[in-house]
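Suppose a colleague, Dr. K., hands you the sequence of a protein chain of 321 amino acids and asks what its three-dimensional shape might be. Before reaching for any lab equipment, you can write down a predicted structure in token form. Begin with the sequence itself:
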Amino acid sequence: MLTAPEDLARYDTWVKGHVGGSLWQSLEWKAFQEALGREVRIYAVEEGGKIVSSAIVVIDRTSFGLSAWDIPHGPLWHDGETARAFLASIVDRARGERAMTVRCSPSEPLLSPSLQWHPAGRLVYAQVTRMIDLALSEEDILAQMREKGRYNIRVAERNGIVVEQSRDTAVFHRLLRQTGARDAFRIHPEHHYRLFVEKLPGSFLLIARDNEKKPIAGLLGVIWKETGIYYYGAFSYEQRALMAPYLLQWEAMKLCKSRGCASYDLLGIAPSDASPDHPWTGISDFKRKFGGSIITCPPEQQIILRPMAHRLLQLKRAALG
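The predicted structure, expressed as tokens, is then:
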């Protein structure tokens, strides 16, 4: 396990130089998760003093000393056989520490057939996303969007919508409560979004206001290396005709481009073969209007180490809503 400052510096260089490296396997993400109160470990395999496989593991502890281990968008590796043995060793360690589950979502297929991996069946780390090329000029970024996307951006501009950078997560959370109640999804407490802004390097918050200066939409994102990532969004349904979310996305793209980003990740859409009632169908239609290319990774997988405890926890969470 890597803990020494010099080892963390080597890890930072490794993950930022790896073709599969991402925000979720970074030291920046580790700092944010620790600010949320979660335990985060970095495991690695080294050969000749160089890292050849690694995994950031986020450990979510629950009652009776039980836990769930997540390897978000990881592990990372150079050699598949070494990585499979490495992942098996993490599973063994998790089993010895009373973990109920281990979940991972590598960028390429990796899982060992000797372990009982199954689809996790949850929508936490996106399997499919839509990526906008920010190396294009602003004119060409607009040109590759669908006509409805460009039109809605112009509608927002004609309606006098103004987008400003902010750190006021309380305003964002009020908007998000409206969105969550309307679309029937759970949201985090306000401090989660505040820590996102305060503890995650590269994060940014944009608030859209109408011509009376009233906040009507918000976007929370983060820049990691040369990629801007749209993470959370919220808007006032009563003001939906003003099309503020479209202008927010466009302003976020321009902000990320101005800060040296080569791409903008819209972060999560329904797979092409998803049923019409997929939870992300609506948001996928919204994101489709911005164009871009579709990136697909293997679905998140899990191995259940303590089936009874895992089942009871799932029932408890379902009962609590």
